[in-house]
Target: Aspartate-semialdehyde dehydrogenase
Amino acid sequence: MTRKGYNIAVVGATGAVGQKIIEVLEERDLPINQLKLLSSKRSAGTIINFKGNDLIVEEATNDSFEDIDIALFSAGGSVSKQFANEAVKRGAVVVDNTSAFRMDENVPLVVPEVNENDLLRHQGIIANPNCSTIQMVTALKPLQDAFGLKRVIVSTYQAVSGAGNQAVEELRNQTQNYLNNEEIHPELFPVKGDKNHYPIAFNALPQIDMFQDNGYTLEEMKMINETRKILHKNELAVTATCVRLPFFTSHAESVYIEVEEEGVSVEALWEMLRKAPGVTLQDNPNIQEYPTPQSAAGKKDVFVGRVRKDLDNHNGFHLWIVSDNLLKGAAWNTVQIAERVIEKNLLLK
Amino acid sequence: MTRKGYNIAVVGATGAVGQKIIEVLEERDLPINQLKLLSSKRSAGTIINFKGNDLIVEEATNDSFEDIDIALFSAGGSVSKQFANEAVKRGAVVVDNTSAFRMDENVPLVVPEVNENDLLRHQGIIANPNCSTIQMVTALKPLQDAFGLKRVIVSTYQAVSGAGNQAVEELRNQTQNYLNNEEIHPELFPVKGDKNHYPIAFNALPQIDMFQDNGYTLEEMKMINETRKILHKNELAVTATCVRLPFFTSHAESVYIEVEEEGVSVEALWEMLRKAPGVTLQDNPNIQEYPTPQSAAGKKDVFVGRVRKDLDNHNGFHLWIVSDNLLKGAAWNTVQIAERVIEKNLLLK
Model:
């Protein structure tokens, strides 16, 4: 770190993840010279306070990135596709929180606790994985290293905030309408851009993102493909069912794994999880200790509980993995990547 | 059926399941001579309308069962343990909706679509399985028959009404308090009789019933053990994670199975599920067709969607199984058993 401070841009500053990125930057020590808040034309002009100063959100243009060292994108895939390469041309490292570049082989897909060395080969754009993938691989990486991973079968319990601020309002309003016995008019869930909409209040929707031709949803395919890329294990058997649920914050995951090594005990898993970076083990049935979406909300770690062995298959284990989808699942992981880029001198200028 | 009508008792008539049993009896053709509604001393005196007549709920005693042909119990395991054998002594067939006798080898554990012939060996008591088990085995039975089942890995999404009327009120009140930014005082979830209580509104609790020494909850062990007993397959590998969620009605289940037969297609599973008794297939990703807790509520069938093949393991399939936990999961299955007992002339007197 040779400079006094860095010029950071947040693209999508008024969105759910953008707001969290600003909050996380505020509490971290990353030396910031200038913070530039960018958005669509529609949200430009919004005033956001950062460390005591009122900053005006500006409309993003190619020129916005001229003097930027690191640009943190979370304004949707189309915005990333429009501006990320332009930002890189102007010398900014892009940390992209959308799915636009995640599976591009020239783009590292990084969870710092898992594969930070992939940052070394970046060519300007670094992708932040999908929220549901990040928390799973953070917990699985130490187990893969210690025991080898053979397969992963995950069923998710996902919060609405992953779908943005409007989605949070839809759950809140629908819930109140339901309690008041008023009619419900679903507008957003399961997927804003899909044809049919169903109630999310007091319900469970087994569709997150659009269906693919193979019958899986895009969210499920993201978990499958991204997990393999991050863990550098293309042959890993991963399969997923993703479900949206009526709570605001944190995704929970019921994860079933099979390990390669024979004779592994729950205690051995606990030991690895206890010392894993970014992971907090909360697992004591005797005192009903386990993480829940509410207990994990607002915290940066990935929480793991309900670790237990399959009673029939001695290589099989269950884990219950919970993390704040807007923090480790998005804003915190993005800021962690930015911090590592600076620490490792991986800026473009 | 040689008689004009039968004397039926409902034990626990004022409870969540008891009320549903009365509703189901009201819409069915089962010929009833006398309907006797029984409860604890506390609820005795309650008036319940049945087919236009006001019936007074009486306190259950041993003598209550003197003239009863079939007694439907859903007042908790201790009440069943106290009265079921006394009822049988007095000539009543007991259909017990609690866990008191389910794993007793002399007691058939019955889902009529799956193993109705087990009724033939009843000795007075017939057990109704756990709600989460019933819907799963109803959907799995046709697949076992057609392709053989090797293993089952289930993660549940369970409604609060499985925990009774008080539980429904707790979710309703907590949700309103949460929306009003008022303090929340959890009193019942995850388990009324356990030490700690956690919020259920806008949360997910990975504990249903008490923890066992092996780290599994009792609900999870019920799913494991009851599934094997009902499917008559003690060697079947079954493992479960059970999660309580903030919705009122219907359990959903993300079920992963491996079948014995090679080369089975999704279409073949669909075909078996389409013709399976008690099952409705709702599975068309092109039009976002899949069951949800709300779409299944109030209906008697077990609904199945999201059927798809594991992309890595050609014997592996996912299913999303949803059913009204108070109907097929409890009241409807109980009344079905009573109807079969009569049809098959299996009464004690």
